[in-house]
Amino acid sequence: MINNDFPRILTLLRKEQGFSQKKVAEDLGISQALLSHYEKGIRECGLNFVVKVADYYGVSCDYLLGRTPHRTGKKFTLNEVPDDSPARAKKNDSTQLEYNRRILVNSLNIVFAILRKIKSESLTNVVSHYLFSAVYKAFRVLYSSNPKNPQGMFELDRRLFGATIESSMAVSEAKERYILSGEDIGECRGVSRDSLPHLTPELLANDYPLYAPSLFDMIKKLETDVKS
């Protein structure tokens, strides 16, 4: 039984190449209607078709089935995750802790690299505020879990800070969407559509070969956790 990731990835690969359903169907030797059913998840294909599609797009079967975020199907290990953070791991750090830290740091490198390309101070400030808020909330929950820890370093009410931060993050996300659509909102200036970089998984992998695998892993892990 083919999983739910296959239709989405099958459609994504075709659109990335700019191919029509008609062209891909002809190349793969099936009808356009059948390909449309595969992409919508209405019909299930056989494993022979999965292999054929994998060869056609130059990806692994595991990638097609959503088993790995890496198109080659390669499994990512801790030693292969680049680490350019000033905070080096300690010998007693757990493998999972260090792996997650590197994945997060490397993913943020790409986020800020994209912001650098767009060159919008308003957008950079809004995205940074959103990320600062997420880190603040996670840290404060950890810090405050021990009631003996003094709360003097925080000004937000301990009873309301969670809701306050979440609402602030929601506002930041809304501002980000407006700015990227080209609209001004408050003191934030909208950006031109021409300044938005063209992004695909292939381009990300080419432009950020050290960091893209981390980003792909983070996306896959988060979406799997959210769906479970």
UniProtKB/TrEMBL annotation:
Record carries keyword DNA-binding: yes
Alphabetical keyword list: DNA-binding
Domain of life of the native organism: Bacteria
Any single Pfam family the record assigns to this protein: HTH_3
Domain HTH cro/C1-type residues, every copy: 10-64
Cited SUPFAM superfamilies: lambda repressor-like DNA-binding domains
PROSITE patterns, per database record: HTH_CROC1
Protein name, entry field: Helix-turn-helix domain-containing protein
Organism, scientific name: Neglectibacter timonensis
Lineage: Bacteria, Bacillati, Bacillota, Clostridia, Eubacteriales
